[in-house]
Amino acid sequence: xxxxxxxxGLLLMRAGTAPVGHAQSxxxxxYTVQSGxxxxxxxxxxxxxxxALRRWNDLKDTALRVGQALRVRPPRPVGSTEAPxxxxxxxxDSAAADPPPSDPPPSDPPPSDPPPSDTAAAExxxxxxxxxxxxxxxxxxxxxxxxxxxxxxxxxxxxTAPLAPGExxxxxxxxxxxxxxxxxxxxxxxxxxxxxxxTRALRMANALDTTALEPGQRLRLPGRQAPEVPPPGDWAAxxxxxxxxxYPDPFAGRLTAxxxxxxxxxxxxxxxxxxxxxxxxxxxxxxxxxxxxxxVDRGPIEAGTLLxxxxxxxxxxxxxxxxxxxxxxxTVWVSGE
Length: 337
Description:
With 337 residues, the chain is of the alpha+beta class. Helix content is 20%, strand content 18%. The chain has four domains: 24-78 and 85-103, LysM domain (Membrane-bound Lytic Murein Transglycosylase D, Chain A, Roll); 124-175, Roll (Membrane-bound Lytic Murein Transglycosylase D, Chain A); 179-220, Membrane-bound Lytic Murein Transglycosylase D, Chain A (Roll); 237-333, RlpA-like domain (Barwin-like endoglucanases, Beta Barrel). The protein has a six-stranded mixed beta sheet with strand order 9-11-10-13-8-12. Helix 4 crosses helix 5.
């Protein structure tokens, strides 16, 4: 497998929101409600509670209308001659927490880019989590998880390989603990009954101090665990399985669909749809043969086969030129071309 991963590295080397609308008044920070906004989503961006927004805006319920102006900062105390902090340049979703009522407003304006609110930290994880083990790489994890290495690369902000043991990694959201997104008119009691948990357990799992919910709010489900990551050496099911054909010898030097000539000694294959430069791993488990290969052509040439492979790929898989054995295909890197 170490040799296979090194081959992938060589192949990869060769392969080579608009801001939220708001208005600002001279005295207070004001947000103009957009289509699709909820009081909960606005409170989350502003780093304040729903109850605070209702109190500052004298709202009797959580209903909103497009174009409605909402105060997202506490009003200036009556009789105060001191101007509130200037938040003109502060993004709505990174506002600082409200000071206690007894504290006077600060004399100096806050920095234009205050630290992000901790509100989002209380939300259930959108993605799965995994701690890298000894020998883990994006490629080996992709094979275990049934995803692609470029997906893991992007989820983890292009973390370089090799991965350090103990390094925390983000996984696709299907590996996150199960959660529930609140729909309009749903109640905490109804959601608890649907999943067979107590209302008290649901409130504790989500640190809720009220039973009121907002559409779009994500709730952790107590007692539900994230799917387990397969152990090292266990690969996910293949993307596809089928017979392969070896490029005929006369094709040597001919241009492939990608514009590069076919080189029999290169680890290359055809594929009907993957972008050129993408990398796949082909396997014959019964023969314990595996190899990486790069997509450079469209195909297959012969009907009833999965793809065409170069002479070098056939040699790695132990395939005779006249044979058409069944192989497993797993995509490990999708090229952006």
